[in-house]
Amino acid sequence: MDMMVSTLQQQRAVTEQLRREAAIKRTPVSVAVADIIRYINDHEQEDCLLVGFSSQKVNPFREKSSCTVL
Fold it and tell me: DSSP states of 19-58 as a string?
């Protein structure tokens, strides 16, 4: 009997979760893609991977200096 009550509670929790997820406002893909494209175009001058780095010291992708043993 306890197993049946537990299963019923689990099913109710799943049902409530599905109802919450169904109530979420969805953004159409076409709108989301347009927003992403607008963001990229607005910030492309700040993108170091597109315009490069001002100096090698600020480049986090530079090769690290090798260690030398004294």
Answer: HHHHTSPPPPHHHHHHHHHHHHHHHGGG-HHHH--SSGGG
Report in angstroms the alpha-carbon separations of 44 from 33, 49, 55, 58: 16, 9, 18, 18
The predicted-structure confidence for 32-51, as pLDDT tens digits, reads as follows 999 999 999 999 988 877 88
Q: How far apart are CA 33 and CA 39, in angstroms?
A: 10
Helix (H) or strand (E) holding 3: helix 2-22
Q: How far apart are CA 25 and CA 34, in angstroms?
A: 18
pTM: 0.50
Would you call 69 helix, strand, or coil by DSSP? coil
37: its two tokens = 């494209």
CA gap 48, 62 in Å, rounded: 13
